[in-house]
Amino acid sequence: MKEQIIRKIFNGLIYIHILHHADEESFYGSWMIEELKGHGYSMSPGTLYPVLKTMVEEGLLEKEEKNVNGKIRKYYKSTKKGNELLLELKESLKVLVGEVM
Q1: Closest C-alpha among 65, 79, 97, 73 to residue 18
Q2: ∠ CA 95-10-76 to the nearest 5 degrees?
Q3: Of the candidates 4, 21, 64, 74, which lies 20 to 30 Å from 54 by C-alpha distance?
Q4: CA nearest neighbour of 32 among 69, 68, 78
């Protein structure tokens, strides 16, 4: 039960983290995996890429394919909708953290 709750919270925080970085600059998936790892999250490509795909389908991210050294790399950047959601989420987090801390 405890692990399920932690997992649900973790999944929500991943969305916020992705939107945060996508708002700053475009990124590619393996970079995001390493970024998340630096914050203690362990995420495989098989977990991250479906999240990114869903966020693109939801209009939160846009995807651009670039040829890098003969290999196609997918870069992700926040959309206006993604930026607006990020601002809302940050405000909600401020209120929540202020209340529970």
Answers
A1: 79
A2: 95
A3: 4
A4: 78
| Residue the block writes with tokens 């999240």 | 51
41-62 residues labelled b (16+ CB within 10 A) or e (exposed): bebeeeebeebbeebbeeebbb
pLDDT in tens, 33-67: 999 999 888 889 999 999 999 999 999 999 999 99
The answer to whether residues 23 and 86 touch, using CB atoms and an 8 Å cutoff, is yes
Residues 6+ apart with CB under 8 A from 40: none
Please, what is the Cα angle at 39 between 38 and 40, to 5 degrees?
95
Residue 37's identity, in one-letter code, is K
Q: How wide is the angle at C-alpha 84 spanned by C-alphas 80 and 56, nearest 5°?
A: 55
